[in-house]
């Protein structure tokens, strides 16, 4: 009975761990070594007025091989924190500039 509960908990943890956030954005800076800054732009409607607004969010992303350059469209994935601000990694470069 106790073993069954432990098995259920371990299987649910593995499902949650593999479900990581992914984003698509454009590289705005590649001046740092093994780090890029990616901007994600969302078009959202204002709650009351209904006007379309551009929301920008910047992510510090780990780029192990320094393959992406300014203006590239990239896909990123959430990981454990590597530094104070860096908790995303580069998955792939979707479009080269």
Task: Spell out the blueprint of helices and strands.
Elements: H1 2-18, E1 22-29, E2 35-45, E3 52-62, E4 73-78, E5 86-95
Parallel strand pairs: 3-5
Antiparallel strand pairs: 1-2, 1-4, 2-3, 4-5
Summarize the structure.
With 97 residues, this protein is an alpha+beta fold. The protein is 18% helix and 47% strand. A hairpin with a 5-residue loop joins strand 1 (22-29) and strand 2 (35-45).
List keywords for this structure.
single chain; 97 residues; alpha+beta; 5-stranded mixed beta barrel; 18% helix; globular
Summarize the structure in words.
It is built from one helix and five strands; from the N terminus they run H-E-E-E-E-E. The protein has one helix at 2-18, and strands at 22-29, 35-45, 52-62, 73-78, 86-95. A hairpin with a 5-residue loop joins strand 1 and strand 2. The longest helix has 17 residues, at 2-18. It is globular, with a radius of gyration of 18 Å. The relative contact order is 0.21.
H/E element sequence: HEEEEE
Shape descriptor reads globular
Please summarize the sheet with the most strands.
5 strands, mixed, barrel
Radius of gyration, Cα only, in angstroms? 18 Å
